[in-house]
Amino acid sequence: TKLPRHFVNITSGTMSFKQVHEITAAKGVTITEFFAALLLDVHCKKQLRENKKLKEVSVQVPIDLRKIYNSSTLRNFTICLRVKVDPNLGEYSFDELLRQVSLQLRLANDEKKLNAMITANMGLERNPVLKFLPLALKDLGVGVSFLITGEQTTTSLLSNVGLIRLP
């Protein structure tokens, strides 16, 4: 069922870690890569099934920066990478999607590229003009920007909590 604008649908489930790990290990990918490819596959097939104009399909995948920057913070320390495919190039098999996701995530998950993304994000914060604008104007600008592009750039989001160790 199509949701109204700005609504979110959360789907959750439970699976045997052992079984999922066996499948992903046999394919040489991570569990996150596997589920990102699965989401892309579902969205590509949905577009084909509905005979809609084919649009780029993408999934945002959060990357845990703690490992890369050797941090032990308990705060959220992630950046999202967008993996995408264009169904206009032809129908993708699941293994092709898996390969695309794996390559895109492994290429983007590089310290130098992540540094560039973080620096770009910080650029707005350090902009001297924006620094002195009242918060109400900044909030308005962010809201307008989100209305224009926010929900159009990403088809789906994947939350990959992963292994959690608490002190």
Can you walk me through this structure?
The chain is mainly alpha-helical and 167 residues long. It contains 7 helices and 3 strands, in the order ααβαβααααβ. It has a 3-stranded mixed beta sheet. Helix 2 packs across helix 4. The protein is globular.
Distance between termini? Answer: 42 Å
Strand percentage:
5-15%
Low-confidence stretches: none
Estimated structural class: mainly alpha
What about the largest sheet?
3 strands, mixed
Q: Helix proportion of residues, in percent?
A: 40-55%
**Topology, number of strands:** 3
Nearest-angstrom radius of gyration?
18 Å
Strand order of the largest sheet: 2-1-3
The coarse silhouette is globular
Q: SSE order in H/E notation?
A: HHEHEHHHHE
SS field, number of helical segments: 7
Average pLDDT level: 83
